[in-house]
Here is the input.
Amino acid sequence: MTEHISLPVQASQTGAARLKMRHAAERRFRIYGLAAVLFGLGCIATLFITIVSGGYSTFTQTVMNIELDLDRELIDPKNISETDFRKIVRTSIYELFPEVSGRRDKRKLANIVSPGAEYQLRDHVIANPDLIGTIITLQVPMSDDIDQLSKGVIRADLDESERRVSDLEITWFNALREQGRVETVFNTTFFSAGDSRDPELAGILGAALGSFYTLLVTLLLSFPIGVASAIYLEEFAPKNRFTQIIEININNLAAVPSIVFGLLGLAVFLNFFGLPRSAPLVGGMVLALMTLPTIIIAGRAALKSVPPSIRQAAIGLGASPMQTLMHHTLPLAMPGMLTGTIIGMAQALGETAPLLMIGMVAFIVDIPASVMDPATVMPVQIYLWSDSPERAFVERTSGAILVLLAFLITMNALAVVLRKKFEQKW
Amino acid sequence: MTSSTLFTTLIILLCAGLIYQKSSRRILIGFLPGSNTYKRESVRSRKIKERIAFLFLITCSSVAVLTTLGIVLSLIFESFRFFTLVPITDFLFGLQWSPQTALRADQVGATGLFGMVPLFAGTFLITLIAMFIAAPVGLMAAIYMAEYASSRARDIIKPCLEMLAGIPTVVYGFFAALTVAPFFRGIGDANGIVISSESALAAGLVMGIMIIPFVSSLSEDVISAVPRSLREGSYGMGATQSETIKHVVLPAALPGVIGALLLATSRAIGETMIVVMAAGLSANLTANPFEAVTTVTVQIVTLLVGDQEFDSAKTLAAFALGLVLFFITLVLNMIALVVVNKYREQYD
Here is the structure.
């Protein structure tokens, strides 16, 4: 008897236990999901923190004020560029530390300022020839190692054998700092110069302009072609086999590895058509082919969101198909198309691999002035700098990444704003 | 300078406006009664214009097809030249990759070995590590976003995760080479394991992070597309939310999830910059994630970067690798698209 009564109680107890287990499983499952999301967000945060903390110091540069004696005997006013400006700079540095002797120490001492100092002085004197014969004070960049020392990247408290800067150099640097000669200023060189072997003289302007010309070509090619394809496929194409092939094809093209586009560019544009290597023109053409699917897909979605009633109304009033399109459908779909184009351009701006294939990876000091000049682009510049052995280039790389990310975020924000502003509910 | 630019722009805009107005008025006049000749002219010119515009549209939409054709033809053509130099069986089944071409005829190891197996082994090892990260994280994140998160939280989480896909790959490469790889090496040193500074682990992990959004976004879409009635049926039977997800929603969304995973895999196989910067250069047939391996894309880049003449086996090999790469990703994409489309038809 008792057994019969106790059974349901027991069952309900195990039932309660089971329910508890199931609810625990439910909580665990939910936590896994949350953990996955947090992992993703944590990765983003880590990435940004790493890049920002490693890169923000790029935007400052350690400089020193130095008196330079522009002796009339050394400078011929009629032929300024023939002057040995290096000698003038070195003499001034040696005068600061008269106790230094010996060839090796002297050379080391001379190297605490950047090799760019003499060119800076030359340009300054050419611009102001009346300074000849006077003593001027000039602010010159210090060498990359001293700059890194000043920023604390190269640590003075390590053993001398473990750092790139010797004790002697640190003594000189500290002496200069006590004299109030050393300053940290905004790094204008980084934004106004092309590439250089010396980190303190390297800038991203060349790469940024290369990116600009490349994207210009990409935009001019891919926007009209992409919009026209989207219009044809969405508005006019008959539902036949050819259209179907184009559609499948576009979807597949969107997922082809970018490096394959680089191979195409190399085989067709460079080897077959003989276009110049390293030119933004070719880079832009390759990237245009890559962004085309993005623009077509976005364009078709935008056209699809325009309600058919608008087309029917236009046709009912006697407009031809092309007039319906140009006067009614296209203007309404334009914001969506522009959003897709901006996103495609942002992708193209960050693309590296196909451009390596067509030779936009050379060391180019000159700043490009047209789409035919050899150039590199910002992501490739980042790749090149990340390969450089100098410690200071690590910082420049992060700095260049920050600039690139700033551009990308601006472009994507623009796309979001555009979408929000013109979003229309029918 | 800027004011003159502004001025010019203004003039151009004005002219454009005038022309536009004129042309639209002409069409209006064309339809007025009593101007019969003008009307006929206008309609005919309009028809010609429309035909030209139409031709332009068709030409543009065939550019995409021409691109694919260009890719296939150029890859096949160059690969064909490669296979006249190196037998195709050596390429497909060879276990050694050392693409050195001889400077002198009697040089040691002068022939160059073009076996693609170690390269693809390396590629698949790194892809496997990447998917090992991206598949669970992406899928769980998708489930959380679709089923648990409030719509406000989802509106924040989704774009943030998608940012991962928008960051240029060169940035990931830099991150992998400079932060993740030394970190793993440090861990290895502390535990007495030798972890190469160009280990497959570092490259694979960072690549996995990169492709999380490829898995999560697409999976979220398909999970959200599972009809409510299925879930409610399950709740009605007394199942908890996680039981419903595991036993009802996921099986229903499985084809779409598989499609998402396949697309992410193909993205990982074709990824270049991360492995160029963080993986090794020498071919190494191993399954040990702590060792350095090289990948197909790394070899394509190393073979082709720098000025080279394009008739040596060394440079042509890059095109043969590209052809195989293109073929593999194409097949993966096709399967993924077919699977996803089949699934869509089911519920629409």
